[in-house]
């Protein structure tokens, strides 16, 4: 039987997952932030990514319902508020819709998800199911992609502002608060994993949960890359009318 990892060793293993598997390494992500995407590809990314943004408070609600400690519920509930807002028009989801609005996408169409790729729909459904059905430790550990997101947000935002003249700081307002929120959330999740992963089996399960989350995010970009760069998207998926899918971004 493998020895129990120390907190420092466990954190190093978790961070290694991000170093190898986080979607910051995906070719489509690199293409997006380096100005190589066509406008069609940027729009398809925003439209599909909306479904992931919208699923976050849903999966967090699954976790919230399973937390027995009131203090932990209060802390976790803030994640839902961050995305849903306290009232209509506030929160991360509203800011993501500002992004898709600025790109010229029809809001009702984005919210409906009817033009999203099948792989996107499968991925977000799998994530919600994972957080509902797997042990609470694994559900919380899967959120530890927040360990890696602040640096990615910075590179993505700076790259998109530098390379796409139709993207403004207001367009990317969603990302303004995310680094601070991600640090707060990952600190909570990491402390929870340290406290509740009491066996090597549980530690390995927490690591596997983070690997699952990384694979979920990676698969969404795989679908975008295949559908909009190397092949054709699903017949019912988003198609731009400009016909620029194979033209270099200006």
TrEMBL record:
Belongs to the PqqC family. Pathway: Cofactor biosynthesis; pyrroloquinoline quinone biosynthesis. Its EC number is 1.3.3.11. The keyword Oxidoreductase applies. GO terms for biological process: pyrroloquinoline quinone biosynthetic process. InterPro entries: Haem_Oase-like_multi-hlx, PqqC, PqqC-like, Thiaminase-2/PQQC. GO terms for molecular function: pyrroloquinoline-quinone synthase activity. Residues 12-222 form the Thiaminase-2/PQQC domain. SUPFAM superfamilies: Heme oxygenase-like (SSF48613). This is Pyrroloquinoline-quinone synthase. Keywords: Oxidoreductase, PQQ biosynthesis. Ring cyclization and eight-electron oxidation of 3a-(2-amino-2-carboxyethyl)-4,5-dioxo-4,5,6,7,8,9-hexahydroquinoline-7,9-dicarboxylic-acid to PQQ. It comes from the Bacteria. It is an enzyme of class 1 (oxidoreductase). It catalyses: 6-(2-amino-2-carboxyethyl)-7,8-dioxo-1,2,3,4,7,8-hexahydroquinoline-2,4-dicarboxylate + 3 O2 = pyrroloquinoline quinone + 2 H2O2 + 2 H2O + H(+). The keyword Hydrolase does not apply. The gene is pqqC. It comes from Methylopila capsulata.
